[in-house]
Amino acid sequence: MSELLQLREVTKVFSLGGGLSRIKITAVDRVSFVVRRSEVFGLAGESGCGKTTTARMILGFEEPTSGEILYFRNGEGIAPLSPRTRFGIGGIQAVFQNPFESFNSLRPVERYFFETLRNYGLAKNKKEALQMVEEALQAVGLSHQEFSGRYPSEFSGGQLQRISIARALLTRPSLLIADEPVSMVDASLRMSIVNLFHRLREELKVSVIYITHDLATAYYVCDRIAVMFRGNVVEMGDVEAVLMEPKHPYTRLLRESIPEADPEKRWTNRVEIVETEQEEYLRRGCKFAGRCPHRLERCMREVPPDLNVGGVLVKCFLYQDAVTTDSASKEADAATI
């Protein structure tokens, strides 16, 4: 499976405050990952972990402080991306958390569709434009008749979110960035939208970056997943391995916090937050050390390495000795062959 998007050591630093009290917060810290063609890649973690900032840099709404973002076309990585390359035909499109903020309440929804087609010169005439709009709507389970002449307030949240996805599909994107796409949608409609991402991947070969704090839907829809905490990717790999057998203490905590319909499996752990969010960001060592029940003394002052543990990337000192021992054993075996 070929690469579509690659982030290389991408960092974003924000300056807060003014004058002598100004401090710098590293919202995204040397993040690297690859999105392949025709896959759903998840970015998961709690609010403030850097998921949306990462997405905004991919979309070009924020400039990285350092690092590189490569978008692959015809096997060649392109960086930096021009707006036309990024959002043009076969480029990148986005679906945001609140669909009601994506449309002007005073304009009929269909106008956005026809303006997109006109701006990119996708339709030769009105008949062809109507056909393309109908095809995009059918891909999300709607029809032109259902939304023609109607305003955003006349749709439910689930309908409007699907309309947002349909509009994004007009330019036939190769990558769709979905930022918390089901958090504002009724529970009864969430699976219909999540299933839609499956269909986009299988039928239209669209890759999706699925940003969420909901591990249940992430497990259902994603092929691979990266778990973020305070700007760092702390664990990354196949979604089955990461969420069913989590290795990083933070991923374990997220996994255990998913409610189960079993009175015998009540939450018994105590999570003590002894630091503010700002203090966690500013720590030189492991950002999760203040909450981690397994922290070592070195965690408070040293940044953990990225370790390959059974095919899963884990940013944690707990596995360093095991990985070092395994590497030494493989080298010894190779020397005797």
Overview of this protein structure:
The protein has helices spanning about 50-60, 85, 110-120, 125-140, 145, 155-170, 185-205, 215-220, 240-245, 250-255, 275-280, 320-335; strands at about 5-15, 25-35, 40-45, 65-75, 75-80, 90-95, 175-180, 205-210, 225-230, 230-240, 305-310, 310-315. The protein is of the alpha/beta class and about 325 residues long. Among the domains are: about 275-305, no CATH class; about 305-335. The strands form two sheets. Strands 6-7-8-3-9-10-12-11 form an eight-stranded mixed sheet, sandwiched between helices. The chain has a four-stranded antiparallel sheet with strand order 2-1-4-5. A hairpin with a 2-residue loop joins strand 9 and strand 10. Residues about 325-335 have low confidence and may be disordered.
Short description:
The protein has twelve helices and twelve strands. The protein is α/β, with parallel strands linked by helices and 337 residues long.
How are the SSEs placed, and which strands pair?
Layout: E1 3-16, E2 23-36, E3 40-44, H1 51-59, E4 66-73, E5 76-78, H2 83-87, E6 92-95, H3 110-119, H4 126-139, H5 144-147, H6 157-169, E7 175-179, H7 187-204, E8 207-212, H8 215-221, E9 224-229, E10 232-238, H9 239-244, H10 249-256, H11 277-282, E11 306-309, E12 312-315, H12 320-336
Parallel strand pairs: 3-8, 3-9, 6-7, 7-8
Antiparallel strand pairs: 1-2, 1-4, 4-5, 9-10, 10-12, 11-12
Helix pairs in contact: 4-6
